[in-house]
Amino acid sequence: MSKAFYSSGDVIADRRADYARMLAEQGDHAAAAELMEQALDMAPDWAAGWDLCGSYHEKAGQIAAAIAAWRRLEALDDDGVFGARLKLAAHKAGPAGEGTAVGYVEALFDQYAAKFEESLVGKLGYRVPDLLDDLVNAEMARLGIGAFERALDLGCGTGLMGEKLRAKVAHLEGVDISAAMIAETARKGIYDSLSKAELVATLNARRADADLVTAADVLIYCGALQPILGALLPAMRPGGLVAFSLEAHDGEEEIFLRPSLRYAHGVEATRNALVVAGLDLLRFETAVLRFDRGAPITGILVVARKPAVELTAANDEAEGGDVAA
User: Fold this and answer.
1) Which residues of the chain have pLDDT under 70?
2) SS3 286
3) Is 175 in contact with 154 (CB distance < 8 Å)?
4) Which pLDDT belongs to residue 186?
């Protein structure tokens, strides 16, 4: 992050912001928000300050004041790194949108990279790579697949999924939006190649060369599935497998944005989207993926297959079948 993230450029404003952080750490979020308001009177164009102010108001239960702070933030945050739009949407104060908030996700994981595994695995009981790997292994055994020639691990992070895949993949490629995450996983030597790129752009840039694609806790930041599935199938070889996780909800909505700023996907809507996209469902299960603030987060685990042969009217005719008029 740039120096502007940490400093307003005004010494007195920074000092008040430091006091506000101390109060917030002590649990007095209302007083912290009040001090941040005073700091922002001196530095009204400090985007990170408005982000802190909104967070303190939210934790104090002052939602209207939080929304007002995030509206100021939205006007200042041209690159979307603070996720103002998502925060407003999560409180029904703006549209959620259906695409990935690239700037926010990149900034979030750049900050989180150094402590990612300690927090996610050690404190939150993260299980997704283990769960997906078990499902992939079961399908490999059932389908008689001994190994994969080329695998693509989307949102590879620090390589937790890659560690599971390495022994069964000849060439393993990792992709992540966060340069800091890429730097962390590069030290482990898990992947044959690593690149910093956005998920859909990565898929659109390749054609039918992956026989396994994984995305462990990645699509929860992406919103609608259709653009991803539309880019995924052309990037896979016929008969190739895809394995991914989603956070789940049982409502009728296809997706909704949670206060955590992660998307939850409807169970039946997800199943339908996969079928409509042309994937053969091999595994479709719900399970507890991790804990968040002490509460279990239920998700969807999917293993699907791109059909080995694309059925067309021409294929039907060549095989002697009836072609519908």
Assistant:
1) 1-6, 96-100, 122-123, 310-325
2) strand
3) yes
4) 95
CA 9 → CA 16, 20, 50, 54, 284, distances in Å?
Answer: 13, 17, 14, 20, 52
List residues bridging with 244 in a β-sheet: 215, 302
E strand map for 109-215 = 148-154, 169-176, 193-196, 210-215
Comparing CA positions, the residue from 316, 254, 242, 313 lying closest to residue 278 is 242
Q: What angle do CA 87, 101, 287 make, to 5 degrees?
A: 80
Please state, in angstroms and rounded to a whole number, the distance separating the CA atoms of residues 124 and 178. 21
Nearest alpha carbon to residue 136 among 282, 313, 320, 294: 282
Secondary structure class of 308 (helix, strand, coil):
coil
pLDDT given at position 317: 42
Tokens representing residue 56 in the block: 């303190």
pLDDT recorded at residue 244: 97
Give the integer Cα–Cα distance in Å for 7 and 21: 13
Would you give the end-to-end CA distance of the chain in angstroms? 61
The whole-angstrom separation of Cα 115 and Cα 95 is: 31
The answer to whether the beta carbons of residues 73 and 47 sit under 8 Å apart is yes
Beta carbons of 224 and 98 less than 8 angstroms apart: yes
Pairwise CA distance, residues 156 & 181, whole Å? 8
Give the pLDDT score at 96.
Answer: 65
Strand partners, 280: 305
The whole-model pTM stands at 0.81
The answer to whether residues 65 and 33 touch, using CB atoms and an 8 Å cutoff, is: yes
Beta carbons of 50 and 73 less than 8 angstroms apart: yes
How many other C-beta atoms are found inside a 10 Å radius of the C-beta of residue 92?
11
Q: Check residue 119 and report its DSSP letter.
A: I
Distance CA 305, CA 242 (A): 6
By the 8 A CB rule, do 170 and 148 touch? yes
